[in-house]
């Protein structure tokens, strides 16, 4: 079974819980928090999720905050994470094919049905082995290795 980690801040909490309820029978889900709508700092949960993904304790991650932007930036600070804020099916496909992204991010206002569709598309899309995509991903990895 595919392992998924999911994290949110307080603004993404409701959508996170709805996604877990919807997908819990399809995937092995690890909830990285938060556990309520009480105000928290999204980087704390982004780093927890990012480390699970980077350590390969889960196959993919889902990150949610007010806009999806802040939590995606924080996730991308974890070495080995490639997180993309996604709003369309085309973006979900492209970020997997081109970038081999391993975390998908949403804003709190993403409708549940659309989020589920994008998550499914993201997980089911394979990364391209086309030379140009592999080369570009390798450049990112090498730069990350030098900087971290």
Task: Explain the layout of strands and helices.
Elements: E1 3-8, H1 13-23, E2 28-31, H2 42-54, E3 60-65, H3 69-75, E4 83-85, H4 89-99, E5 103-107, H5 112-124, H6 131-147
Parallel strand pairs: 1-2, 1-3, 3-5, 4-5
Helix pairs in contact: 2-3, 4-5
Please give a structural write-up:
With 148 residues, the protein is of the alpha/beta class. It is 49% helix and 16% strand. It has six helices and five strands. The protein has a five-stranded parallel beta sheet with strand order 2-1-3-5-4, sandwiched between helices. Helix 1 links the parallel strand 1 and strand 2 (28-31). Helix 4 packs parallel to helix 5. The radius of gyration is 14 Å and the shape is globular.
Summarize the structure.
The chain has six helices and five strands. Helix 1 links the parallel strand 1 and strand 2. The radius of gyration is 14 Å and the shape is globular.
Gap between N and C termini = 32 Å
Bulk shape: globular
| Number of extended strands | 5
Structural class: alpha/beta
Beta strand %: 15-25%
